[in-house]
Amino acid sequence: MREMRTGRLAALAVMVAVLLPASPAAAQMVSEARELAVGQAVARNFEKRPGFAENKACAEQILPIRDALVPHSGRLHLPYRVHILKLQEPNAAAVPGFVFVTNGMCQAGLSNHEWAFLLAHEIGHIAGKHTA
Asked: Does the domain made of 2-127 have the CATH classification 2.40.110.10?
């Protein structure tokens, strides 16, 4: 099961790498619409597998932190939706428009300061067009 999950995540990483240019100069040439379209595609894939988890306690802890960080992103007009993935491995990722954290990360007992660090890191990837 873990090998299948790793394979799917690797395939997704390859898809993103192929669809989006790698250099910082090229990243600036990618339209915001294309960035967000890729983010939507990744989110749809994650919704199917591994799926989104309902974790109200985690959402209640991290959403106010996200809301406090976004004004400092430099890309205020973008959505920064947070979804919790049905995965037990502690991890997080971001694509344009979305921040994903795993159930395992939610269960790690992070403080608000630790969540702020993690979310700022992921929001920084979106703001910096690192997936573009």
From this structure: no
User: What is this structure's pTM?
Assistant: 0.80
**Per-domain boundaries in the chain:** 2-127
User: Residue 75 class from Cβ within 10 Å (0-12 exposed, 13-18 middle, 19+ buried)?
Assistant: middle
Please, which pLDDT band fits residue 110 given cuts at 50, 70 and 90? Answer: very high
Nearest to 67 by CA among 13, 121, 116: 116
DSSP for the chain reads -HHHHHHHHHHHHHHHHHHS--SHHHHHHS-HHHHHHHHHHHHHHHHHTT-B---HHHHHHHHHHHHHHGGGSS-TTS--EEEEES--S--EEEETTEEEEEHHHHTT---HHHHHHHHHHHHHHHHTTTT-
